C-alpha cells in the first residue's frame, strides 16, 4: 500500500486560518472605528453639563424683556445667526453675566482663541449650513469647532419645527492640562 504525503496539508491549513483571522480582525476594526469616533464626538457635543447650561441660558433668554430685539430678523430676514454673547444686549445684564460665568461661556483662560459664545439662529439649519459651506460664516481657523458642530447637527424640514429658534452655546471646560471647548443646542419657542 502506497502512503499519500501530507506535507502540503499543514501549509494550507495555516493559510486558511491566517486568512480567516485577518478577515475577522479587519471586520472588527471597520465596525469599531466609527463607534470610537462617535464616542469622541459625544464627549464634546451635547454632553450633559452643556445641555444643562444651554437650558439655563434658554430660561434666562425667555424671561428677558429684550428677546424680540435679540431674535429680530432671524426667521423672516437675512440674518442667519446672531452672536448674543454680549450681555449689554440683554435687559437682565447682571443675570446674564452670572449665567455665563457659572456655565463656562467665558473667554478662554489659557490664552487659546476659543471663547465661549451664545448664538441664536432659526431652528431649521439649511440656510446656516449653506452659509458655512460657502465660507461666509465662521471662516477663521479658530472657528473650526463651531463649524464642525453645526455640520454635525441634523437638518429638520418639518414646518411645525422650523418656526422656532435654536440656541447654540460653546463652553470652555478646564481639564488638568488643557481647556476643551464643548457645544450644545436647544430649541427656543416664543
Provide the fold topology.
Layout: H1 7-44, H2 48-62, H3 67-71, E1 81-83, H4 93-103, E2 117-122, H5 126-133, H6 144-152, H7 159-162, E3 165-174, E4 179-188
Antiparallel strand pairs: 1-2, 2-3, 3-4
Helix pairs in contact: 2-4
Strand portion: 15-25%
The separation of the N and C termini measures: 95 Å
**Element order, helices and strands?**
HHHEHEHHHEE
Number of helices: 7
Number of E-type strands: 4
Explain what the structure shows.
The radius of gyration is 25 Å and the shape is elongated. A 4-stranded antiparallel β-sheet has the order 1-2-3-4. The chain contains 7 helices and 4 strands. It is α+β, with helices and mostly antiparallel strands and 190 residues long. It has helices at 7-44, 48-62, 67-71, 93-103, 126-133, 144-152, 159-162; strands spanning 81-83, 117-122, 165-174, 179-188. The chain folds into 2 domains: 1-44; 45-188, no CATH class.
Tags for this entry?
alpha+beta, four-stranded antiparallel sheet, 190 residues
Please sum up the structure shown.
With 190 residues, the chain is of the alpha+beta class. Helices cover 47% and strands 15% of the residues.
